[in-house]
Write a structure and sequence with these properties.
Elements: H1 3-14, H2 22-39, H3 50-62, E1 73-77, H4 85-91, E2 96-101, H5 104-117, E3 122-126, H6 132-138, E4 142-147, H7 153-160, E5 164-174, H8 179-188, E6 193-202, E7 209-217
Parallel strand pairs: 1-2, 1-4, 2-3, 4-5
Antiparallel strand pairs: 5-7, 6-7
Length: 218
């Protein structure tokens, strides 16, 4: 990773209240290099330039950090090449994280990165959250569910529900959204969720808009 882009990562992380140590920067650098290496052979992500990887993957993942409650277990659904779960693990090592994705090559990459970085308390599962065997193993285990892969928020809330502990949170990462539509959706979910927060932001040094939605399971 070029020096100017390391600075970009450091300053971007600061905007989310994260102060990266040298070992953190080295971990992100290794992650970046392995992502590009694997991407030359298999299509993990359409984002390929150094600055875009830092912005649209690393910093976008870290944008969730200020909204994490004091939970210790996190399920990242549709995590692709490990986002946002692995970057969050790097800056919050106490999190126990489970990554799940339906694409085998992406899960293989996740497991590779976990080994390369020597991370503990994180596992990668190949499959879908709709699968009964996965639900049986993971039901009611998590304080947080994250996802930036679900286009249908209603499905995320419904399918994620049995994986959450009572009082657990779904933190959905969306693009620009209509507040009224989100509030109406929360109401249609009845008493199962309470919409706690809608946070709109622009990623550092860019015009990329992100909306973070926090739903609490009742």
């Amino acid at each position: 990773m070029e020096t100017k882009n390391k600075t970009f990562l450091i300053e971007g992380a600061i905007s989310f209240g994260i102060h990266l140590e040298e070992n953190d920067i080295e971990a992100f650098d290794l992650y970046f290099r392995e992502l590009l290496k694997w991407n030359r052979k298999i299509n993990l992500t359409a984002i390929r330039t150094e600055r875009e990887v830092i912005l649209r993957h690393f910093l976008d993942s870290l944008s969730v950090y200020p909204y994490l409650p004091h939970a210790v277990t996190l399920l990242d659904i549709g995590s692709g090449a490990g986002f946002p779960g692995i970057p969050l693990k790097l800056v919050k090592p106490s999190l126990e994280i489970t990554l799940i994705d339906s694409v085998r090559k992406k899960v293989d990459f996740q497991r590779h990165i976990v080994r390369k970085l020597g991370l503990k308390g994180i596992e990668a599962i190949h499959g879908r959250i709709q699968e009964r065997t996965i639900l049986k193993d993971l039901e009611g285990r998590f304080g947080i569910i994250t996802s930036r892969a679900f286009s249908d928020l209603g499905n995320l809330l419904i399918l994620g529900f049995p994986y959450l502990k009572k009082g657990g949170w779904v933190i959905a990462m969306k693009g620009r959204t209509n507040d009224k539509e989100i509030r109406d959706l929360a109401e249609t979910e009845g008493t199962r969720y309470r919409l706690q927060k809608i946070a709109s932001l622009v990623l550092p040094f860019s015009s990329f808009e992100r909306t973070i939605l926090l739903f609490e399971r009742e």
